[in-house]
Amino acid sequence: MNKVFALAIFIGVIHFGTAWRSFMRGRGKDGNLGEPFSTKAVDPPAEQWFTQNLDHFNPVDGRTWKQRYFATSAYYKKGGPIFLMIGGEGPASGKWMVEGQMIEYAKQFGAMCFLLEHRYYGNSHPTSDLSVKNLVYLSSEQALADVAYFIQGMQAAQQLPDTSRWIMFGGSYSGSLAAWMRAKYPHLVHGAMSASGPLLAQIDFQQYFIIVEESLKTHSQACVDTIAAAIRQVHIMLRHRIGQQGLEKLFNFCDPIDSGKTSQKDIANLYETLADNFADVVQYNKDNRNESSITIDMVCDVLVDEKKGVPVNRLAEVSNMLLAKNKEKCLDYKYDKMISELRNITWAEQKNAGGRQWTYQTCTEFGFFQTSTARPNLFSETFPVEFFIQQCADIFGPRFLHTLQPGVIRTNTMYGALDLPNIVSNVVFVHGSIDPWHALGVTKSSNPNAPAIFINGTAHCANVYPPSKNDLPQLVDARKQVGQLIGQWLAQK
How far apart, in whole angstroms, are the C-alpha atoms of residue 71 and residue 94? Predict the structure, then answer.
């Protein structure tokens, strides 16, 4: 047996995380909101620019840059509240100023609305490139300070009353930012809606694939059993050349498996990609992002259909279904290519995807590495946490082997992790049971001033997207509850 492929069958292979590959598809498994599916023939507002400090915590450094934002006063009534959607780890979209649940609340309360793009993502470029020396200004702390200065700047520029009440909105990472804004800047922020926000920084996010499996079981146990059987067949096929050729054809690999050129890292990336397919489907299941979303039911219907052949054939059909959806011609599993692209420091290569930027934040602040070791029988043991950590060093340099532990401790110390509901008010934490990220968020709260809404059967940030006639009753109720809470906050004296 060739040792490359023998070793790939069990642990001992290096792999990078799902965020990069999904970012290249347009949206990361980290959970960037992206943009809502446009159902209205209304052009979004033009982008605008706000002058920010490069380093908010060094008064000696006078450098500034231009941060992109979008705004609409279409529903604003004099004296009404100000709603601000905080951008996350990807480009901001002006479509959020046209539709989405925040706009529905704006109509209800007569609010002015803003969307502020996160520094280093999209077109908000604080520095000339994305070199490590420049990425030191990329952090959640700096992003929160950006929001604070933006609020003060808009308060003056729009000549808003001193009594104006600002409500933050965000989903996933930006949902965490929304809650942290209320905690860190209560004199500027009156309330916050935090959707699917992971408040606990954690290096080894083993719970992620546990919830992926449980979510797939909402279709059937047979769906999960088929995935496990298919992965076992992949193990066997990788052991010999005929099997390797069969996999190349079934899964439409961009590059053939070659014992002289295919590394252990390549094989690990292949395994992780197969796992990532299901992670993406589960995380965004029926979230109203667009009309063509592939759901748990769709992939599981394929997997349990024995007429489609043996399990590995069915797994390949699901993989190819997702390739077609993402307009990819073939399945790219080459590790070195991935690392090379993440080492690129030019804005032209990274601005749309944000892969290098988000990887930097996970390596210095959050971890969030979605490892396979909690479910080895389902997705194999080929991407344990140690090898995620190695990628930080492979991309940014050897010293990044040692940034995670202190970085995660610092993040949880600064923001309070899952204790945040006990020390904050006027924040609502919203999560869905299907979404794996709820494991790092607040799903129960004993503080009536910082309640949690846990929506059975919904996925990542579902309550943020535009309403649909197909929404579950509990999702409709959750949106109403959030609206009632906002009304209560605005009624406070």
Answer: 8
